[in-house]
């Protein structure tokens, strides 16, 4: 498909963080937090999701080795 599972998890988490309607529902207590939402959608333990997101966040700020 072009995107790895880890990248899709990161992009989904990022979209939740940016969504004003999701943030409103989260503040009201109607939905779970972003980490839990990602864990439920991808059926992955939340610890694993946290590790994956930390890795993806780190790679998003670091320039790729091909760039100079």
Care to describe what's here?
- The chain is an all-alpha fold and 68 residues long.
- Helix content is 71%, strand content 0%.
- It contains four helices and no strands.
- The N and C termini lie far apart (28 Å).
- The model has no long low-confidence stretch (mean pLDDT 87).
Helicity range:
over 70%
Give the helix/strand class.
mainly alpha
User: Count of helices?
Assistant: 4
Shape call:
globular
Q: Based on DSSP secondary structure assignment, what is the total number of beta strands? A: 0
Instruction: Round the mean pLDDT to the nearest integer and report it.
Output: 87
Give the tags.
68 residues, mainly alpha, 71% helix
Concise summary:
This protein is 71% helix and 0% strand.
Q: Helices, strands, pairings?
A:
Layout: H1 5-18, H2 20-28, H3 34-42, H4 46-61
